[in-house]
Amino acid sequence: MTKEEFIALATEAALACSRVTGFPAGITVAQAALESAWGQSRLSREANNYFGIKAHGNGPFVELPTSEVRGGKAIRCRARFARYDSMQTCFADRDHLIATLSCYAEARACAGDPEAFIRALARYWATDPQYAEKVLALYRNCRLGALDQR
C-alpha cells in the first residue's frame, strides 16, 4: 500500500469516526500513519491494528514484540495487542477508548484544537516522550489539518 492509498483509506475511516465523536480526523490519520508505518507494520497487516491498541476485554488479540520507553530508556518486550476485523473497526475502538476512559478527559475537552488534543492524548497513549511531536510532524507535512476544517 502506498502512502497515498493509506491516507485515502485512513481518511475514510477517520472521518466516519469523527462524525460520531468530534475528534480531529486529521490527527487520527497522522496517528495511524505513525503507529502503523503507513499500514506496513506487522501489527496493522496481521491484526488491522493501526494504533498499537493493547488487548482489552475478551476480544481477539495477537502477541508481538514491541518497544516501550521506561525510565527514559527504550526496551524491547512482548505485548498482547487487539486484533480487529477491519480498519474501520480499529478506528472506532480507538475513538471509543478516548471517549470513555477517564485518563483521556483532557483530550476530550480539547477535541476542537487538534494540536492540544494530541498533546493531551499522548500523555497516556504512548510511552515515547516525543510521540505528540511525531504525530504533529506528519499532520503538518501531509497537510492533514484540511480534514479538520470540514
Structural class: alpha+beta
Question: What is the H/E order?
Answer: HHHEEHHHH
Number of separate strands = 2
Bin the strand percentage.
5-15%
Shape: globular
Q: How confident overall, as mean pLDDT?
A: 94
Radius of gyration: 14 Å
The profile of the biggest β sheet is: 2 strands, antiparallel
Helix percentage range: 40-55%
Provide a count of the helices: 7
Q: Largest beta sheet: what is the strand line-up?
A: 1-2
Q: What is the top-level CATH class? A: Mainly Alpha
Number of domains: 1
Distance between the termini: 26 Å
List strands and helices in order, with pairings.
Blueprint (H helix, E strand, L loop, with lengths): L2 H19 L3 H12 L5 H6 L13 E10 L2 E10 L4 H14 L4 H5 L4 H12 L5 H11 L9
Antiparallel strand pairs: 1-2
Task: Quickly describe the structure.
By secondary structure, this protein is α+β, with helices and mostly antiparallel strands. Helices cover 53% and strands 13% of the residues.
In words, what does this structure look like?
The chain is of the alpha+beta class. The chain has one domain (about 5-45, about 85-150): Orthogonal Bundle (Lysozyme), CATH 1.10.530. Helix content is about 55%, strand content about 15%. The protein has helices at about 5-20, 25-35, 40-45, 85-100, 105-110, 115-125, 130-140, and strands at about 60-70, 75-80. Helix 6 packs antiparallel against helix 7. The chain starts with a helix and ends in a 9-residue tail after the last helix. The model has no long low-confidence stretch (mean pLDDT about 95).
